[in-house]
Design goal:
Methyltransferase, Methionine Synthase (B12-binding Domains), Chain A, domain 1; Rossmann fold; 2 domains; 5-stranded parallel sheet
């Protein structure tokens, strides 16, 4: 029978929710919710990241782990003080027009949500006008654009250009298999009035 902290970490690593609620309730008898999140749960996610980078896990398994983490955080949040659960920032996420790939974007959504950010996930094939409307409605602190296809890289150039014309200039984070730091710096960033940053991975 493993110690409680190890069981919590293992639940995240294995992507299971079995027995997790009971273990969390037991942990709450001795520890503050944030300490549980930043301790054994984050240790579990760190190990998931290590295994993924070593090609020991596939993306689907990482998503399962992230779902376990999300479940745990949601349960712990009900025990947090208002100050503890205050939103760190608001982020609009979208897979650009013409692209249906969303695993990476959804992983970013889960990670950011787990770390106190409010995420507005617009889904896939999002045209620039929908992104502009969401920015006017939600007033985000940052925009995240994702795309896997080669044509998606060019779509990001057009999308940030449209955002700029609409007087939107909050930081934009771009990511996806078709992108590189160089393309972001030389092609996307010049089309935008604000900061554009490249995210190599989730």
């Amino acid at each position: 029978n493993l110690p409680l902290d190890e069981r919590l970490s293992l639940a995240v690593i294995e992507g299971t929710k079995e027995g997790l609620a009971e273990d969390l309730d037991e942990a709450l008898l001795e520890s503050a919710p944030l300490d549980i999140i930043n301790g054994p749960l984050m240790a579990g996610m760190a190990e998931v990241g290590r295994q993924f980078n070593a090609n020991e896990l596939i993306v689907a398994e990482v998503l399962q782990s992230a779902e376990s983490m999300k479940f745990a955080v949601a349960r712990l949040e009900t025990h947090m003080d208002r100050a503890d659960s205050a939103v760190r920032g608001k982020i609009v996420l979208a897979t650009v027009k013409g692209d249906v790939h969303d695993i990476g974007k959804n992983l970013v959504d889960i990670i950011l949500s787990n770390n106190g950010y409010q995420v507005i996930n617009l889904g896939i094939k999002v045209p620039p006008q929908d992104l502009i409307a969401a920015c006017h409605q939600h007033r985000p602190d940052m925009i995240g654009l994702s795309g896997l296809l080669v044509k998606s890289a060019q779509m990001m150039v057009e999308t940030v250009g449209d955002l700029s014309q609409a007087q939107i200039n909050c930081p934009v984070l771009v990511g996806g298999a078709a992108l590189s730091n160089r393309f972001t710096r030389l092609r996307i960033a010049p089309e935008y009035g604000g900061l554009v940053a490249y995210a190599g991975d989730a």
